[in-house]
Specification:
Length: 449
């Protein structure tokens, strides 16, 4: 039975109207200049909603996490009232960074410099020599500086702009589209941060186009139809973007390499009880047959696909949240991709790859087709941090990361005169124009409602 979404309950797959884009060249200095980095910080990073961590990291009162974000560190914690709050991680005495650990549990936060102590809701509750303050005791007067914080999709979001518009406005329409996926229940089974020698925009640009796939990911042609004519690109008014790419189907140019196609689709076929050998000479049929088979067997395999449209059972639904987060939705998980700016150097950033596995009900172990390995529900995942080459961001994504340093070097060259892009890369242009609209203050998200 084909399910075609007729109402908003299912993911809206209609094509967004195309915005009118300019043709100003995207110059290398946008990636290398400290001045431009400052403009981005002042006018964009301090005004957009960002993800500080996952809700699953804070199950108990007193649990906390910190997240290094540009020159700031953000502290997020669950209070006695079960509310999750976000603060600048800075002591109000003489500015020492308050919490050094990345995560933990505590009933209060004590500064390591002079011992000032804060409650979980940010109130200053103890200082030594309280009688010695000529201006009066700071207790009851000072608090940690709190910033807007909200939850969506199993993530903790914060915004450094106290007067910001709502998270819902910022996320639209992705929050509605993605409501069919059990984001809250997916588990982070990979947590990788690469200390990159490249600007954060090389990361975002890369995930804003699929033109590079034949060269950078030659294996994808066996199970993705990556041709731009087969994909849908959506550019939404608030700068969020989307790409829909057919999966479980080879690109036509790969059709004569049958053994390779079988190699890449066999795990999926096996799980869903299809015989790959039946598809020799007709691999174009595999995608639709797999969709039908998933509908038929979903319940017995521990999945609820009832709100998915047929394409979501096989395809890549790739959602870009302005300015720096991608969710690459697979039928059984989500690759979270993000470039976070460095504190001071435009030639550096932190690239995060988190993989969220959607475990079938009651299944402890699951073979992730995307990560090409078994994932376990009960094994806590470590945060692995390192340079590219020392740590892996997983198959496929490592191929992307392998390009960015070389591109950053080229962006600093006097020989680069600005981009010359095909239309299928237009999400990149839209992204850069959106940054400029933040910098000049005209972006719609900045307009007060
Ligand atoms: S700077 Fe924190 S107690 Fe002095
Ligand atoms: Fe890629």
């Amino acid at each position: 039975m084909a399910i075609n979404p007729k109402d908003n309950y299912f993911t809206d797959t209609s094509k967004a109207p195309e915005p009118k884009l300019g043709d100003k060249p995207i110059l290398g200095e946008r990636y290398t200049s400290v001045e431009f980095m400052e403009l981005e910080w002042e006018h964009m990073w301090t005004k957009v909603w960002q993800i500080g961590g996952t809700v699953q990291e804070l199950p108990n009162v007193g649990d906390y996490i910190t997240y290094n974000y540009g020159r700031e560190s953000i502290l997020m914690t669950k209070g006695q009232d079960q509310k999750i709050r976000a603060f600048y991680n800075v002591c109000q005495h003489r500015a020492n960074r308050l919490v050094q650990a990345e995560s933990g549990n505590s009933d209060s936060f004590s500064c390591g410099y002079h011992g000032w102590k804060y409650a979980l809701d940010g109130e200053l509750i103890h200082v030594r020599d309280e009688e010695d303050f000529l201006q009066g005791s700071p207790c009851g007067k000072l608090r940690l500086t709190e910033i807007p914080c909200d939850l969506w999709g199993g993530f903790i979001w914060f915004n450094m702009d106290e007067a910001c518009n709502s998270l819902d406005d910022f996320l639209a329409p992705h929050n509605e589209h993605l409501s069919v996926y059990p984001l809250d229940n997916m588990m982070r089974t990979d947590w990788i941060t690469i200390e990159g020698d490249f600007n954060w925009k090389t990361v975002q640009d890369n995930f804003n186009e699929s033109y590079h796939i034949p060269d950078v990911h030659p294996q994808l042609k066996y199970f993705l139809d990556e041709r731009y004519q087969s994909c849908q690109f959506d550019l939404y008014p608030n700068s969020n973007v989307r790409m829909l790419m057919p999966g479980s189907v080879p690109t036509p140019r790969a059709l004569d390499e049958e053994d390779m196609i079988i190699e890449y689709i066999k795990h999926d076929a096996e799980m869903w009880e299809l015989n790959v050998e039946d598809y020799r000479g007709r691999f174009e049929d595999f995608r639709v047959d797999l969709q039908k088979q998933k509908r038929k067997l979903a319940e017995s395999k521990g999945y609820d696909f009832s709100k998915f449209n047929d394409d979501q059972l096989t395809d890549n639904y790739h959602y870009g949240f302005f300015p720096n987060v991608y969710f690459s939705m697979k039928p059984d998980g989500n690759i979270f991709l993000r470039g976070t700016p460095h504190a001071t150097d435009p030639n550096k950033c932190y690239f995060d790859m988190w993989y969220f596995t959607w475990f079938p009900d009651a299944q402890e172990e699951y073979y992730s087709f995307t990560m090409e390995e078994y994932k376990s529900k009960s094994t806590p995942v470590d945060h692995i941090v390192g340079k590219f080459g020392e740590v892996s961001a997983g198959p496929g994504i490592d191929q992307d990361v392998g390009v960015w340093e070389s591109q950053q070097q080229g962006l600093a060259s006097r020989g680069f005169k600005g981009d010359y892009m095909p239309n299928q890369e237009r999400r990149i242009r839209y992204h850069h124009e959106s940054i400029d609209r933040y910098i000049d203050g005209t972006h719609e998200f900045l307009q007060k409602k």
